ABC transporter ATP-binding protein
Amino acid sequence: MHAAPSPAQPPAGTGRKVGDVILDVKNISLAFGGVKALTDISFDVREHEIRAIIGPNGAGKSSMLNCINGVYQPQQGTITFRGKTFAHMKSRQVAEMGIARTFQNLALFKGMSVLDNIMTGRNLRIRSNIFLQALRIGPAEKEEIQHREYVERIIDFLEIQAYRKTPVGQLPYGLQKRVDLARALAMEPQVLLLDEPMAGMNLEEKQDMCRFVLDVNDEFGTTVVLIEHDMGVVMDISDRVVVLDYGKKIGDGSPEEVRANPEVINAYLGTQH
Ligand SMILES: Nc1ncnc2c1ncn2[C@@H]1O[C@H](COP(=O)(O)OP(=O)(O)OP(=O)(O)O)[C@@H](O)[C@H]1O
C-alpha cells in the first residue's frame, strides 16, 4: 500500500515566459500501407508556448498528435520529451510523463456527470490500494478528498460549476468540449495536446475556448500544442505555427512568417478552411 500523496494545488498565476525545448520531434515518418501520412517531420515545442499545427484536410495533423501521444508508432524518427528520447511511446507512459490530450471527437462518458468525467483524469494519480478506495477508508479517503479538491478548482477555473452534477451527454457541444479540456487538465499535464478544440463551435463558444486555452497556458504554465482549422484563432493565440501539407512540413515560424510563406499560401488556395 502506498501512502496517500498530496496532489499539487493548481498554481495561481505562474506568469508566461517561453522556456527551453520541452518536446522535440525529429524526422518522423509514418505510413499506413502505401499512404504516407507523415514524411520526415521535425519541429520542436518550447516550454510554456502555444504551438499550432495547421494544414489542409488530410495533411497529417492528427497523425502527428497520435505519434506524440503513443497511439501511432512511426516507422522512423524520434520524439524527445524533457530530455528522454523515444522511438516508440506508449500511451500510458506518455500520460504518466505529463502529456495529456483532448480529442477531435470527444472521448467522454456521456451518461456520467461532469464531475465524475473530470475525476477520470485523476486516475493516473490515484495511488492508494483499490480495496481501500472502494471502502473509502484510511489514506484512500484522504487521497480522494485531495483529488476532489483539485478537480473542484479546475471546475471553478473553467466556469462549469453549474453543471457539476449534469450528465455530460445533456450539455451543449461547446460545454462538452470544455469538460474534455477539464478532464485533460485534471491529469496535471506539462504539455496539453488539443485536437481541434474549437471545431463545431459557434463564435461565442470559440471566444470562450480561446480565453480558456490562454488562461490555462498563463495560469498553469501548461505548454499547449493545438491543431486548429480556424485561421483567425491560430493567428491570435499561437506563438509559433507548424504547417503540414500531404504529410510534409511546408512552413514553421511565427504566425506572421507562415502567413507570408508562399508555399503555405499555395497549399491553402482552392481549399476550404
Ligand atoms: N488509421 C489510419 N489508417 C489509414 N490511413 C490513415 C489513418 N489515419 C490517417 N490516415 C491517412 O493519413 C493521412 C493523414 O491523415 P490525418 O487524419 O492525420 O490528417 P489531418 O491533417 O488530421 O486531417 P483532418 O484535418 O481532415 O482531420 C490521410 O491520408 C489519412 O487518410
